[in-house]
Q: What sequence folds into this?
């Protein structure tokens, strides 16, 4: 919000420089981004009068004789709209203009030029606020401008513009009246809002137009009719005010609606009544497939969630966002309809975001407007149009719908205030604070009630009253106390401990932690998910790419992999510890369940090629090995079950991870087609449920001494069916029930010559140990025989 210091001084009486005001506002809750005075960086700019002009042959240049007060200077000008008899901005030799550019005497095409005739852009105004008629040329000053005088006061360049950073809860300050109320409270002063006298003709507006509301997204819609207006440029003071606020002046009628937007914070729109095909104006929801050409000449495809203003069942404006080109005010307009309404902020936000069409009006509807001044704003705009455009205001406001403009009662207790702020304020002090805020208060030393006007829609609960008291009383006046030490020892929860341990294990294995977005597309939300649930989507997403809560972390990690691979960083080992969101109820009514998970993604090489070793590429077993380290840490007996059900993973290189018969995760290679879509090479991923691991944890095993007696190892080679799994062999060995068996390791798998095509050889190393005695060869032989019989039941042939 850009606030004119000059204008603010007219609205409220206070003594203080702009910098002092900025400091006080920043300490009472509205941050000031900065203060700018455009004339501060300019010098030697005066009003000049063009006496005569002469074209330079074969060029676009014009030699001008310009009266600059004490003398007549010859200045060469390239502007297409230069002519004799106009007042212009002249930069004299030695002047400083925009970007600290210094003007010097010189010759152009052999003609001496003593200065420069400036456009608004050349003295520092943005091209976006320069009136279109002067967009490609110099600016004409008012004819009553005094030749030779500095131009700053004529353009209000000497005004100080205060930029406020308005937070959503203080949208009341998105208007000059709102800022004036705030300044009056800070300085314990009063606002000076001058009433506007409105003269109405005898002709009734209701005889000319009708209005109706056919949408629950429109609380009220009001309109006035002004006839016989004359469209012309706005007076200089209004153009200056708009340009300083960052708005381009267009014509007197449109500029007045923008003035009301700045003054009251009330968005308005003016229609050309003669372009209406019917007298009835209807505020309704758009129809699917309906189209509208807006004022920026873009055709907009509308949906049912959009609010439109229609005449003769044809959309003429996008409610709260932008008007339509078919009913635009132009130089031939004579009769106009002025609208002011209250639209649903959420609906306006959705429409403006979807169409990428943000405007000053839409931003105010989104954050809220002052309901109590809607009619006053309408009357002020009509009176100004009658004054500046010479129109006749028809009698009465035509309206549909109503809004409650009465004050809102909010109560609190004195004890609650002092307990919250640590103060000892009495009722008289609190009453004085709300007097400064322009709010009536009733009550006594124990309980009080504040009548909050509709302009402060952010105050609705007792805590809001406390915040207002703290702001005006002064945060610097609140007592400071040191935190109390209650002797409570802090400790990590089991969930926090597991997350830290997992991070340590992952980083020990060479992985790098990343944090990806919890929001993604609905399609990616359920990808890489063994059992997808209903997707939880945001009602009001910032972008389509971040509209749904994820049910897996792998999809987001692959985006990071793709980003790095595209930048030639191809050897990646990444992990993430985060939350996914599963929905068991109605996604529109019930909150999703948050589940802690660990995920990893591996691609590229484990070891680079050098002169004596070959390159080692990442494979399935690298990913599985990292998971095994985690499961070993918590002594979890997990199993792996091959699966081809997950369409985003390779059907022959993917396994579910099972714990106590339940799927707690997966590990596998990204499907080649999916990898191609992401633009990544062969990549292996895994994801496990940390909540399931936490639930399966058992109490720590009691400490047992390291055995003093040696272990004995034996190798065994088995000839097995080609389809027999490693896990089947482990289960068979375990079923033998040999309690002295402490470890089983697979060290060789062989297929090929000397073995039938449907067979394979698997070799294991078995370790035996008795913690209380040395094992004999006879004992170990018995154990091997017992294990051999168990393996034979599996169909194994001991080689």
A:
């Amino acid at each position: 919000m850009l606030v004119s210091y000059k204008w603010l001084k007219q609205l409220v009486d206070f003594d203080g420089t702009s910098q002092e005001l900025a400091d006080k506002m920043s300490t009472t809750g509205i941050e000031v981004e900065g203060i700018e005075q455009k004339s501060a960086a300019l010098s030697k700019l005066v009003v000049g009068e063009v006496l005569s002009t002469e074209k330079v042959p074969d060029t676009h240049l014009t030699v001008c004789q310009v009266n600059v007060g004490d003398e007549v200077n010859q200045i060469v000008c390239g502007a297409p709209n230069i002519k004799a008899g106009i007042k212009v901005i002249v930069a004299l030799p030695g002047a400083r203009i925009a970007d600290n550019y210094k003007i010097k005497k010189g010759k152009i095409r052999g003609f001496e030029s003593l200065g420069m005739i400036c456009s608004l852009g050349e003295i520092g105004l943005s091209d976006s606020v320069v009136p279109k008629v002067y967009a490609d040329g110099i600016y004409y000053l008012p004819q009553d401008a005094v030749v030779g005088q500095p131009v700053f006061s004529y353009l209000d360049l000497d005004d100080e513009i205060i930029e406020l950073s308005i937070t959503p809860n203080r949208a009341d300050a998105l208007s000059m009246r709102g800022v004036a109320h705030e300044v009056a409270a800070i300085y314990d002063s009063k606002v000076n809002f001058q009433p506007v006298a409105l003269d109405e003709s005898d002709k009734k507006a209701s005889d000319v137009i009708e209005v109706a509301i056919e949408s629950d997204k429109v609380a009220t819609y009001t309109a006035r009719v002004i006839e016989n207006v004359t469209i012309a440029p706005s007076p200089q003071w209004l153009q200056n005010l708009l340009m300083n606020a960052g708005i381009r002046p267009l014509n007197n009628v449109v500029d007045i609606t923008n003035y009301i937007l700045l003054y009251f914070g009330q968005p308005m729109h003016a229609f050309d009544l003669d372009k209406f095909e019917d007298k009835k104006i209807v505020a309704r929801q758009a129809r699917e497939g309906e189209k509208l050409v807006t004022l920026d000449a873009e055709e907009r495809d509308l949906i049912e969630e959009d609010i439109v203003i229609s005449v003769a069942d044809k959309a003429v404006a996008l409610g709260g966002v932008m008007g339509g080109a078919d009913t635009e005010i132009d130089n031939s307009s004579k009769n106009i309809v002025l609208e002011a309404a209250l639209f649903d902020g959420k609906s306006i936000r959705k429409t403006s975001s979807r169409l990428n069409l943000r405007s000053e009006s839409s931003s105010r509807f989104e954050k809220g407007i002052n309901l109590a001044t809607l009619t006053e704003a309408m009357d002020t705009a009509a009176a100004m149009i009658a004054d500046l455009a010479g129109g006749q205001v028809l009698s009465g406001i035509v309206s549909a719908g109503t809004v409650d403009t009465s004050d809102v009662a909010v109560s609190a207790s004195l004890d609650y205030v002092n307990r919250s702020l640590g103060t000892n304020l009495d009722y008289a002090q609190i009453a004085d604070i709300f007097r400064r805020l322009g709010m009536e208060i009733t009550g006594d030393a124990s309980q009080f009630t504040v009548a909050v006007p509709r302009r402060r829609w952010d105050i609705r609960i007792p805590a809001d009253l406390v915040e207002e008291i703290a702001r005006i009383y002064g945060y610097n006046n609140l007592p400071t106390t040191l935190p109390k030490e209650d002797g409570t020892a802090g400790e990590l929860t089991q969930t926090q401990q597991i997350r830290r341990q997992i991070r340590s294990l992952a980083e020990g294995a060479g992985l790098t932690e990343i944090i990806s977005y919890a929001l993604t597309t609905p399609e990616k939300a359920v990808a890489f998910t063994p059992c997808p649930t209903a997707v939880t989507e945001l009602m009001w997403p910032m972008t389509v790419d971040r509209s749904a809560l994820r049910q897996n972390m792998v999809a987001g990690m692959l985006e990071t992999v793709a980003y790095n691979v595209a930048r030639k960083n191809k050897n990646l080992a990444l992990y993430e510890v985060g939350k996914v969101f599963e929905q068991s109820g109605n996604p529109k009514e019930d909150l999703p369940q948050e589940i802690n998970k660990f995920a990893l993604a591996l691609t590229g090489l484990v070891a680079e090629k050098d002169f004596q070793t070959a390159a080692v590429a990442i494979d399935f077993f690298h990913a599985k090995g990292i998971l095994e380290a985690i499961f070993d840490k918590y002594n979890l007996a997990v199993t792996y079950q091959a699966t081809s059900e997950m369409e985003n993973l390779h059907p022959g290189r993917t396994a579910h991870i099972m714990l106590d018969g339940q799927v707690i995760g997966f590990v596998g290679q990204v499907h080649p087609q999916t990898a191609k879509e992401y633009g990544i090479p062969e990549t292996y991923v895994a994801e496990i449920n940390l909540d399931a691991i936490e639930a399966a944890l058992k109490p720590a095993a009691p400490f047992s001494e390291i055995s003093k007696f040696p272990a004995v190892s034996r190798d065994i080679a088995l000839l097995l069916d080609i389809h027999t799994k490693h896990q089947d062999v482990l289960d068979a060995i375990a079923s033998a029930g040999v309690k002295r068996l402490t470890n089983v390791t697979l060290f060789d798998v062989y297929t090929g010559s000397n073995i039938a095509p449907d067979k394979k050889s698997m070799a294991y190393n078995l370790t035996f140990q008795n913690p209380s005695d040395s094992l004999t060869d006879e004992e170990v032989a018995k154990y091997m025989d017992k294990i051999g019989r168990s393996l034979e039941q599996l169909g194994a042939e001991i080689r």
